[in-house]
Amino acid sequence: MLGNVIGVLYDGFAYGMLLFLLSVGMSVTLGMMNFVNLAHCAFAMLGGFVTVTLINQFGWPFLATLPCAFLAAAAVSVVLERILFRRFYRAGDLDQCLLTIGVVFVSIATAAYIFGTVQQPVQLPAWIRGVFVIGGHNFGVYRLFLIAVALAMTAVLIASIEWTPFGAQVRASVDNQRMARGLGVNVDLVFALTFALGSGLAGLGGALAIEVVGLDHSFALTYLIYVLIVVSLGGMGSIGGTFVAAVLLGISDTAGKYYMPEVSAFLIYVIMVGLLMWRPAGLFGKR
Amino acid sequence: MARPTGSQPVDALAAEARWRPAEIAFWLATLLPSFVTPDYLQLAGQILITGLFALSLDLILGYAGVVSLGHAAFFGLGAYAAGIASKYGWGEPLTGLLIGGGVAGIVGYGASFIISRFRGLALIMITLGLNQILAEAANSMGWLTGGADGLQGVHTWLVLGVFHFDLYGVTAYWYALAVTFVVFLLVRRMVYSPFGLALRGIRENSTRMLAIGAANHAHVRKAFTIAAIIAGVAGALLTETTETVSLETLSFGRSADVLVMLILGGVGQLYGGLIGATIYMIARDRFSDINPQYWYFWIGLLLIAVVVFLPNGLVGGLKKLGAAIGRRGS
Amino acid sequence: MTAALTAKGLEKSFGSLIVASDIAFELPVGERCALIGPNGAGKTTLINLLTGMLQPDSGQILLGGEDISRLPPQRRVRMGLVRTFQINSLFPRLNPLEAVTLAVAERRGETRDFLRRLATKAESIEEAWGILKSLRLDGVCYRETRELAYGQQRLLEIALALATRPKVLLLDEPAAGVPKEESGELFSVIDGLSRDLTIFFIEHDMDVVFRFASRILVMVSGRLLLEGTPAEIAADERVREVYLGAAHHG
Description:
The complex is a heterotrimer of chains A (about 290), B (about 325) and C (about 250).
Chain A: H1 2-33, H2 40-58, H3 62-83, H4 93-115, H5 126-129, E1 131-134, E2 137-140, H6 141-163, H7 165-175, H8 177-182, H9 187-213, H10 219-234, H11 239-259, H12 264-278
Antiparallel strand pairs in A: 1-2
Chain B: H1 8-16, H2 21-29, H3 33-36, H4 41-63, H5 72-87, H6 93-115, H7 120-140, H8 142-145, H9 170-191, H10 194-204, H11 206-211, H12 216-242, H13 252-265, H14 272-290, H15 295-309, H16 313-329
Helix pairs in contact in B: 4-9, 4-10, 4-12, 4-13, 4-14, 5-6, 5-12, 6-12, 9-12, 10-12, 13-14, 13-16
Chain C: E1 5-14, E2 17-27, E3 32-36, H1 43-51, E4 58-63, E5 66-67, H2 73-79, E6 81-83, H3 96-107, H4 122-134, H5 150-163, E7 168-172, H6 180-191, E8 198-202, H7 206-212, E9 215-220, E10 223-228, H8 230-235, H9 237-249
Parallel strand pairs in C: 3-8, 3-9, 6-7, 7-8
Antiparallel strand pairs in C: 1-2, 1-4, 4-5, 9-10
């Protein structure tokens, strides 16, 4: 029983880290630009497909594909941001939702066209697929790798936002866009870079997700709901809140599926609705 | 028709509610399928039902400005309520609609106390969450709903004791048309009532409404409950004409689809839902003949195009076009 | 005679920032009272506290002698305490006739009716029309609000407030953004309103304040510095110092 608990916590935490990578960019763009980007998971899916293609078609090593997943997602997202999304920063929630869900639909169909509708197989190197044993419990190496990457990314993210000049501009833009503009911050550039960074992280998350949850053409929609739960619970714009919400959701979802597979989905939504009714701006949101 | 009162402002407001030629033409056009495309009456009936569902969403989204990503909850409730009633021995269609609408309305009234308190992302996620809770509940209560296999054993009696539901969907089409038209008349009346004006006020500026002493929450609750009833009627209509109910009626996919249709057609224009549903469902019917996988590509592109180029949907675009032609003519 | 509006010991702070401290005043019925003070003195916050858009940390608000401190904003409106906004807060896609009719119909409880046409509420519509006429907005009342000129939108703000039949009207910089030559005209329309109506207004233009106010409150950093007749205020050294000092900073 105790072994199960430890295993569930471990897997749940790893899953939470994945959700964090997938969600943090959306949370930041929502807090900063007030832009509801439902296409966020489409960038994650793009990262996943980049990794799959590089491994299966070109025989690249798994680790080398990860930066490419990040860069590809970042690059495509910034193009979309420049030509499409930025015109809608001042539009209503609904217009933003519809525009970006349109992008999701297009991405799903495109993925189905290129890759078909089957789960994408990926062969990872043997060292990462193994397990290690501590105190009689088995732990998957891959999940440890996932946790390490996510924590490293979180550390880099928080450090760069807290201690770099760019981070100061980001914080200023989140707090008060007009004031930041008045102080000479190039808000447009900050927006574009932040958007690219957030999407890049999602791309990385998408690549790392393949081994854990699989990848197919509908990934952009399937995981959207999870990401939305994390973002709305975490409180938009709050990196710390997103982290906590992702871990909570990761662990409770894993635990629910393990202990109460019948009603786990039901419980997740009950908890989400209950928490949002209690704190509409999220657990760590302002107001 | 309202009599002229001799008072200029009263007549001006009365004129806004008057039937326009385009509206009459629209309803005449709904009769066309039975003459022009008799092979497609099945589809025409489905379109009407979906259009009615979209109309109910328009009432809360287009008029009260409440974004719901979980409206299928009420469609599904109506569908299951009518289906279960029929399975256990009551298949009379008209009262079946009342059962569907009633059950959806009661649940909608309860939910409205939650909905009226929230806005923005929290509201979107709460409506979505409530929808998912209901869908999961229906899925796990297989003894009542039939679970993933769908509800079997639904049998609808004759309409008015005379017309039976035929294989070609003739009765289904006329029945759906009649119900949709009657409900539409009620909704239209509502939109041009003082209550409808209050809803538009909430949509335009809810803070200002509070500052003129308006009972925003009560208005939103009422609109939401009425929308839930209509969605339930639409769901019951689907059950009665297809004699089966599946979990899909409650799904997130259906909530999202109906929103997309309404946006395509135009929000807050009364006809947006019906027109959006027509285009969406005909297009899906056509495209899925070719390849169902790529259907989403076009619908996605269409959505982007509507948001970018036609902020008021197709109906809004047509109105603008009509106005421009009118100006040139005069 | 009972005062139209009374505030007693209102306090409000956001964290360590004190925005209202021990605010107390009385407005007799029919008073035209101006609230002046430098930017950031907490004038709009005070209006928000009075109307219930913000909850005070402590203190009491009485409307015609009745305690309204705990009532939600819309209840206070129905009891006769009504405000306008410094930044236009209107219904962009309703026309003025619809907007004012809406306000009248809300007051009369007619907006619950969802089965009769709007045009059947002829009395409400006529009343709205009368208000629009009195503010000289009848000429534009069939145009969408967003198409109106700025000054007309300011008047519509007031028309909406009047439609609720207020006892006390709180005007937050009614002439904000209106050219100086027109603001006098706007205030003479305001001044011409019924003498049963108590008006409390925020205004920066001292000419306007001294012309129209019968009483002036001066607010600085969340406190009432003093109150008095225009003559008393004009003669007060402290006011000059605070006001001109602040004006120098812009």
